[in-house]
Design brief:
61% helix, elongated, two-stranded antiparallel sheet, mainly alpha
């Protein structure tokens, strides 16, 4: 009973401390302001409850990111310092490195679009947790897709593959980085494996969206090429998919991975109907 009471008191104290240290409120002008951004100072002020305070700060990271993401924000100024404080308070909070680096790496408005900060965070995680193969995978993932550093990604996949519990496809990815890193099939192979192996609902959903986006990135240029060939033969752009179907260039109206028909514009460009459902596409974005 005494232990439980002490825990409650310590939790209240930690929440009070966070409230005093940070005065950022949802949707306020102070949302991106940290009055005390020194991780070392916050750790000294944690009064011995740094692990508990780290969990509270991690919740704040998730809430901050969620609010920004929901508003399609293009700036996440407080994200890096919040993550630095969180992982300094608890250097072994692996989830903060994994998801925090993802929040940092994804391009706006899906994330901060700061792959350098993402790499710095995940390397901090590896220094503090050298036997966590997931961190090497996350580093390789950012090097591959975010920085196009295929050699670095190959090394990270290889190092992670040597750790206990790592998945066999880590070795496969290390080899693919050296031979096939720039093609769609390699990216699709990676995301499909993440989807198949992950037990985390959010990570599976994220992987599914990436696979769907890669499909769009492959299909849009092919459809635009068909429209271009039609224009070259007829002297004018197709006015609709029906023109291409009647002429025998297509069998049916093409649909994106969400089931929605692609939109054929008058200039021959092809876009998706709802880009918010396919946040990671690089082709087919409406202007």
């Amino acid at each position: 009973m005494i232990v439980a009471s002490g825990l409650v008191v310590s939790m209240v104290a930690c929440f009070a401390l966070v409230g005093k240290i940070e005065a950022a409120y949802p949707s306020s002008p102070m949302e991106d302001v940290l009055f005390i951004s020194s991780p070392e100072f916050v750790k000294r002020a944690s009064l011995g409850y740094s692990g508990l305070l780290a969990d509270i700060y991690w919740m704040r990271v998730v809430q901050y990111f969620g609010r920004k993401h929901q508003r399609d924000s293009k700036e996440y100024k407080a994200l890096t310092p919040l993550l630095d404080i969180t992982t300094t308070l608890d250097p072994n909070l692996v989830v903060a490195y994994e998801w925090g680096s993802t929040f940092l790496d994804q391009p706006p408005p899906s994330g901060a679009g700061d792959d350098a900060a993402a790499v710095a965070l995940i390397r901090k995680g590896i220094r503090n947790n050298p036997n966590e193969w997931h961190l090497y995978f996350t580093l390789a993932f950012i090097q591959y897709l975010g920085q196009h550093d295929y050699l670095g990604a190959a090394q990270s996949f290889d190092e992670g593959s040597k750790l206990p519990g790592s998945h066999p496809w880590m070795k496969v990815m290390a080899a693919k980085m050296l031979t096939e890193a720039g093609n769609f099939e390699t990216a699709r192979y990676m995301w499909q494996n993440i989807y198949n192996e992950s037990t985390d609902k959010n990570l599976k959903q994220n992987a599914e969206l990436h696979v769907a986006s890669l499909v769009v990135d492959q299909e849009v240029p092919k459809l635009e090429s068909v429209a271009s060939e039609f224009a070259r033969h007829t002297g004018h752009n197709p006015s609709s998919w029906r023109d291409l179907i009647v002429a025998g260039w297509l069998r049916s109206i093409p649909v994106d991975p969400t089931g929605a028909p692609y939109v054929l514009r008058s200039d021959g460009h092809v876009v998706v109907a709802d880009p918010k459902k396919l946040p990671f596409i690089t082709r087919g974005k409406p202007e």
